[in-house]
Give the backbone structure.
Amino acid sequence: MKTKVICFANNKGGSGKTTTCASLAYAFGERGKKVLMIDGDMQLNLTLSYFNEDEALEFAKSDRNLYNLVKNGGNVKDCIVKTRYENVDLIPSSTLMSSIEFELFTKWQRESIMRKTLSPIVEEGIYDYVLIDAPPTLGCWVMNLLVASDYIALPVEASPWGLFGLANMFEFIESVREINPDLSLLGVIVTKVDGRKNYFKQTLETLRSTEGIRVFDQVIHTDSSVEWAQDDSKPVGGYKKSSRSAGEYAALADEILNKI
């Protein structure tokens, strides 16, 4: 099977991108799929979903991180670290990612740097899936991540502000397709759902009535297990498999695997 690259992106912060990326990586790994996660955000949250703060900062200071890879080139395989879970690896981020837009500005064919960087592992088929956690922006860096991707998944928070800016996101996707015409919208993942509140149903209705958008059947409810898992530097499935969120992300993983 050809390696599939999925980028989790939304220009609005707090949409659950990182939690979704980390949780699906774990669920895919549980299903025997080999997964490489890429932490594309300077906040290191995806790295911190699998490693404690000391370990994450050690990666950030070393050469084994995404910033060093993009800035200086080199072999992508040298930046991959193993997690404690079978089948799930990671390229950590660095706090220096805050200057990545500046670093890209001076580079030739800057929109395609990430695609070239990942090409050795994609062409060799080392992984079944590469899952990228993008920062909540719409700049050259996120364009880079999407140019390198086969699919974009859009986590959207079920809140009054959850849909804000989504039109800009879709316009941005169209601009990316001028460089990467094969980029597909995998679908919208509705997160942070509180079923007691009416705006959840309103959010779903609005999304499902929008032409050309697939909304996954499985939604993700708010669950304190997610925060406890983050505090323990684990994906929620690795922290508490019996939790509601772990079950929902497992079901979402099956839905995505059936689609791709």
Q: What stands out?
A: The two ends are 11 Å apart (CA to CA).
